[in-house]
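Run log // design_07
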């Protein structure tokens, strides 16, 4: 539902009932991940997409039915149709399991509060029961800061507390996920399947070195919804006028700034200074932090000299293995803009544990489960799947 948080927040503020259709399971290749939603209000207005167009009509009709009839939540499964390319189905070959439920914001005010937090870029989570006893399917619970609020179906008993604990833990990861829980008489007697929609703060991209390449990378990082910081010790170069796409521009020694700023497992650190007096203390610090990506710009000769200097200051081989240098994928990039694409492509591939190879050269589905690694073509069964 976070893909349409803006509109849902407005509908909740207006106490406008709506039907919510959410992907709760994906099999094979599908264009959009679990947690993606379509919503339809009483006037027939629709927002969102769950299949890139393949099954939208059927989902829309199901939403209208559930909304008009005030009915119980319904499950529907949409799969590939090889008899009729225009039949309801996913032409990309995957299958979607969709839950459609009626939402009345006046009865579930916590949902609007969680969506308001998400729209403002603050962390919040909505736990949605998508499998379990009939009376609990469709129940929701919101995590707001250190507190949580559940609807009447979940309540504040053992089941509600268990769902809240798991949703809070999932929010810390910043990832939407489906969780299996319950079956314990003391904590949660019912076995439930819960989809946690996690709206985390924007991940950070820290760019060190106020150079032309940094300006292009800041723009690309902003496009990917990173909170972009450009840091350089030289005030004449580190200015907001030179980096209009950065969320903040900091004048400080890079290693000193990195030592005092907040980072997490989603943070990408890009070192573009290629100057040893900046690089070495900065990378020594960066490679000791639990961040998602560390890359450094420079030629292969610069890279070899950098590795030697880092070893001299005590950086271990295990830490050096985390360093992406020379930074970026081999795209033949020359301009700052092309280089920014090369760098962000590597960040995306690294975060998704993907190969970075052309899709035509890897086997298996394009849309893989999180953490799955693509096999080079010829090393796995099947062929590359297309998208819808």
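design_07 sequence
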């Amino acid at each position: 539902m976070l893909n349409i948080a803006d509109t849902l927040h407005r509908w909740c503020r207006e106490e406008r009932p709506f039907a919510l259709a959410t992907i709760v399971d994906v099999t094979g290749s599908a264009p959009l991940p679990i947690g993606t939603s379509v919503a339809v209000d009483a006037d027939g207005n629709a927002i969102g997409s769950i299949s890139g167009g393949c099954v939208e009509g059927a989902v829309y009709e199901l939403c209208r039915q559930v909304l008009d009839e005030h009915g119980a939540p319904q499950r529907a499964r949409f799969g590939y149709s090889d008899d009729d390319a225009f039949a309801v189905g996913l032409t990309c070959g995957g299958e979607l399991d969709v839950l459609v439920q009626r939402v009345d914001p006046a009865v579930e005010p916590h949902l609007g509060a969680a969506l308001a937090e998400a729209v403002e870029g603050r962390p919040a989570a909505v736990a949605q029961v998508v499998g379990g006893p009939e009376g609990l399917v469709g129940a929701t619970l919101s995590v707001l800061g250190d507190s949580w609020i559940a609807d009447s179906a979940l309540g504040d008993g053992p089941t509600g507390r268990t769902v809240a604990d798991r949703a809070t833990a999932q929010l810390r990861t910043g990832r939407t996920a489906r969780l299996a829980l319950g079956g314990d008489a003391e904590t949660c007697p019912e076995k439930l399947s819960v989809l946690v929609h996690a709206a985390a703060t924007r991940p950070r991209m820290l760019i060190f070195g106020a150079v032309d390449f940094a300006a292009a990378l800041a723009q690309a990082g902003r496009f990917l919804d990173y909170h972009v910081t450009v840091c350089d010790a030289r005030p004449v170069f580190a200015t907001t006028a030179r980096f209009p796409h950065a969320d903040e521009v900091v004048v400080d020694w890079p290693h000193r700034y990195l030592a005092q700023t907040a980072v997490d497992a989603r943070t990408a650190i890009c070192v573009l200074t290629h100057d040893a007096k900046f690089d070495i203390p900065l990378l020594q610090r960066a490679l000791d932090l639990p961040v998602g990506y560390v890359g450094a710009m420079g030629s292969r000769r610069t890279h070899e000299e950098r590795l030697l200097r880092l070893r001299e200051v005590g950086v271990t081989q295990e830490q050096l293995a985390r360093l992406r240098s020379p930074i970026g994928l081999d795209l033949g990039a020359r301009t700052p803009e092309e280089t920014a694409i090369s760098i962000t492509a590597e960040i995306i591939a690294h975060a998704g544990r993907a190969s970075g190879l052309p899709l035509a050269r890897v086997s298996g589905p394009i849309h893989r489960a999180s953490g799955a690694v693509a096999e080079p073509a010829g090393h796995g069964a099947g062929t590359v799947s297309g998208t819808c």
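The radius of gyration is 24 Å.
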